[in-house]
Amino acid sequence: MHKVEFEQLEETLFHEKLDNGLNVYILPKKGFSKTFATFTTKYGSIDNHFVPLGETEPMKVPDGIAHFLEHKMFEKEEGDVFQEFSKQGASANAFTSFTRTAYLFSATGEIDKNVKTLLDFVQTPYFTEKTVEKEKGIIAQEITMYDDQPDWRLYFGIIENLYENHPVKIDIAGTVDSIQDITAEHLYTCYNTFYHPSNMVLFIVGNVDPDQMMKLVKEDQAQKTFEKPTEIKRIYPDEPKEVAIKERVLEMSVQKPKVFYGIKPEKLDLIGPDMLKHELAAQLAYELLFGRTSDFYHHAYENDWIDESYSFDYSLENGFGYALIGSDTHKPEILIKEIKHTLQNAVEKWPFGQEDLDRVRRKKIGFFLRALNSPEYIANQFTHYAFNEMNLFDVVPVLEEFEVVDLQNAFALVSHESQHSVFTIMPKKKDAQ
Amino acid sequence: MFETINIAKGVNVHVNETTQFKTINFSIKFKDKLTKEKASARSILANVLQHSNEVYPSHTALRMVLDDLYGTSLYIDSSKRGNEHVVTLNVETVNDQYLSEKGVLEKVLNLMYIVLFKPNFEHGLFKETIFKREKNAVIQRIESVFDEKTRYAQQRMMELALPNHPASTSSNGTIEDVENITNEQLVAEYKEMVAQNEIEIYAVGDVKPEMIASHIREYFHFKDREGAIAVPPLELVKPEQSRVLEYEDMKQGKLHMAFFTPITFRDEKFPVMQLMNGVFGGYAHSKLFVNIREKESMAYYVSSSFASQFGLMFVLAGIDSKLEEKAVALILEQLEEIKNGNISDIELDQTKALLTNQLKEALDSARGQIEIYDQYMELTDAFEPEFMINRWKNVTKKDIAAVARQLSLEMTYFLSGKEDEKDA
Predict the structure, then answer these.
(1) Can you give the three-state secondary structure of B133-148, one letter per residue?
(2) Could you give the CA distance from residue A119 to residue A195 in angstroms, rounded to a whole number?
(3) I need a surface site. Which of A223, B30, B162, B212 has the fewest CB within 10 A?
(4) pLDDT, tens digit (0-9, with 9 covering 90-100), for B80-97
(5) B198-205 and B11-17: which strand pairing?
(6) How many angstroms separate the CA atoms of A43 and A95, rounded?
(7) How many helices (H) and strands (E) would you count in chain B?
(8) Catalytic residue among A5, A10, A16, A70
(9) Which pTM was predicted?
(10) Would you report the helix, strand and coil content of chain A in percent, each value rounded to 5?
């Protein structure tokens, strides 16, 4: 077992890669009564085209299948796994993102039992045509619920605008139609390909003894048999640099327009330390341009072009990413124009110096330290970083090394007009009765 | 958990000295009676005070100094509990032992003083542009509820079921009242808040209770005050209509049901009602989840919740608009099961285990510690999780059935999405 100490943060991380390829991380947290564990596979909605385990030809699977599989993992021949966790005083849950499917629990007692339950249920698939059919009604209601949420539609609307071919543009849960094609056989194919321990990370954080916990996980895994780890062949289409759609409007039942201005980053093949550095530098650059201390924010807020719903974000994965700036607004045209101007001005003349960098860097370090109070943040973020070959605990040292020019360079990669797009939701006009 | 130091009549400092967190959290709570007018005024006040002040006269200047203090977070929110309206200044700052720079804590305490006592005045009034802008911001916040149809449906139901009752009064007030408030009235409200409200001050982190108390005593100058007189919540009045159907242009139907119960937070049967709600629809093992979602595949979300301050229980479900009647029947069938005492040992044990877990988990965050302590202060002055865990322990199925029989369904509200047919 490797032990890595982060002295300034007063955290110690224990890690071991087991014989079956599973990466196990344990982070003891003093003073906490709860333990939070996530068991995550590097498999999300974008992995819809791949070579199934043991085969040679690639296949395409119906949209929404990773999420469907996540739902079905909880049902077993002997009943519902939620019941098991409840009996042991644990709250269990799961989520599917573009790139990951995570199963998790939090509990303040019976931790050993709950860890065993987590490992067992994720490593024992049970799918029948009957249980698959039954789930379609539930997931159809989930999809319908999201369809009625303007903020979700706005988010997906801009991503569909930005991407021409990449499967990130497909809704994570699929559509009510696409999930009808899912069969138990599909679920087994996906499960066998992507749920091998070598494609997964177990992260346990909280009130645990690392030696004892690692022993428990190792013994559990040694008792189970797995195929030899093989490399998973995932197929992603080529994606042009330019956005797919420059501008689109959707009408919904809302009281005021909503806008997202989206930017597609130029370099989407980054991984590891380069990715970490670029993402952090771009986030700082966007903080300076669009954060709450920026000239943009000041003018937009005081003039009522944005309201309390205003947000901006820069997020990167291997293969896709986006910068988003948006708000509910009575003045969508002016807001879009102002965002464009702000970006254009920064391209022509970079307006920030050392003092600005120091300030946003401090803000970011403070945010990171605050986040370390949350076991959920640590487990989820660490796993996301690990799948992209980065280390969460490198964030502060990387931030400390930045110079102004790093921010400027990161910004330059996301500034070209052909990489920009706008999605707007407008209030639906009520017909005269 | 917390050590309490009284610094003036009606003003208490509560400190939990702990190394569990990498940050220090503060909350200063100003408590007053809840009325629509007060909620409206105090929501604007919260916004105006967090916008800027005499020392940092623009939003940008204030945010810059916060960024410089390692991204110290500072916001003021407006909330309600029962018939109380609460304005809370929330601050979280990094413990400077993790930083190369020291003295951050003193700067943060000083900033809190400035935010509360050095408002951005011009000739004795709040700066007019800021006053107007923040009034507008509160109005837009109230309006935005419409976009989130679950929140909107709940708000509609409450307005219809219990008009002019604290249970339906939004902590943000009403658009009309916000619009009507004058700058002079807001200044009067501000003065009343700092001079007359009951104040609870919380600190959680690696700090000494005496140090925090003496700092606040020395710099904040809080004077003695009577505080708001605790008025028990109004009686629940039977709604005029028991079933309401409304339409919006959307795909999913939103079913909301409101039940009255004589049991509130202050009742000795409060823990029984918590368990009843848990068995009914509080968790993934509950009767509603297992039967409506898992067996019938009718909903993705279906749950119940207990608003213990008012003696209300709600059921919420997202369903196909055609299935309203069937869903209501199935939900009431599950309630009937509980009334008849058809609860398994496992259901009871699971619910006790999860309530216990939830409470302990909530105490793993500083904010959770503050909110739980503040809520339970009324029942015990030395709150520990065992206080509730012991009360849940002895509850029986019979007890649960008995409180279920006291529930009365008073309103079924359905926000339907099937208006399309009319469009053609």
Answers:
(1) HHHHHHHHHHHHHHHC
(2) 12
(3) A223
(4) 999 999 999 999 999 887
(5) parallel
(6) 11
(7) 16, 13
(8) A70
(9) 0.95
(10) 45, 20, 35
